[in-house]
TrEMBL record:
Keywords: Flavoprotein, FMN
Gene3D superfamilies, alphabetized: 3.40.50.360
Protein name per its UniProtKB record: Flavodoxin family protein
Record-level Gene Ontology MF annotations: oxidoreductase activity
Domain NADPH-dependent FMN reductase-like: 1-120
Domain of life assignment: Bacteria
Length: 174
């Protein structure tokens, strides 16, 4: 299976730690590519609608090559830290630009990993999950998992062996 991971964090902290644990489990049987929005030149969606009449976004930036990778994947993993009770702007930017070819994202297998500095029973995780639930309904996604983790210090998640084993197991069981 071809898996594309969209890393919504610009830091090398807990979100990347979670991604790496997932990859450790998934890499044996799957082809994996990581998209790092903070390293791409992607302009915000203008809502112009021209993309609905053409083969993609009219912006001459990294949008279309990035969306090509996402559309070609069998599974998409969205990983994000919590920024102000929501997903990071880096991740949201890529999601917004997916509008240019949204129908090509139908029926994908999808998972989410959210890492925040508040306990996982906080409303912020629920808000992010609800956004992904709405996208999943609209695009007929098969939501394989929604995982949320609480970690504040940069190495805190890595020290949580139960979480690391869980993430590795999710990847291994795909």
């Amino acid at each position: 299976m071809k898996i594309v991971i969209i890393n919504g964090s610009a830091r090398k902290g807990n979100t990347l730690t979670a991604i790496n644990a997932f990859i450790k489990g998934a890499s044996e049987k799957n082809e994996i590519e990581i998209i790092e929005p903070d390293k791409l030149n992607i302009a915000p969606c203008r809502g112009c609608g021209v993309c609905q009449c053409s083969k993609g976004c009219v912006d001459k930036d990294d949008t279309n090559p990035t969306i090509d990778k996402i559309a070609a994947a069998d599974m998409i993993l969205f990983a994000t830290p919590v920024y102000w009770w929501g997903m990071s702007a880096q991740l949201k930017l890529v999601i917004d630009k997916c509008y240019c070819r949204g129908l090509q994202l139908k029926n994908k297998k999808v998972g989410t990993i959210v890492v925040g500095g508040s306990p996982v029973d906080s409303i912020q995780y629920e808000l992010i999950d609800k956004q992904f639930d709405c996208m999943a309904k609209y695009l007929s996604w098969d939501m394989l998992f929604n995982k949320s983790y609480y970690a504040t210090a940069r190495d805190e998640l890595e020290k949580n062996k139960n979480s690391m084993n869980e993430l590795e197991g999710i990847g291994k069981n795909l």
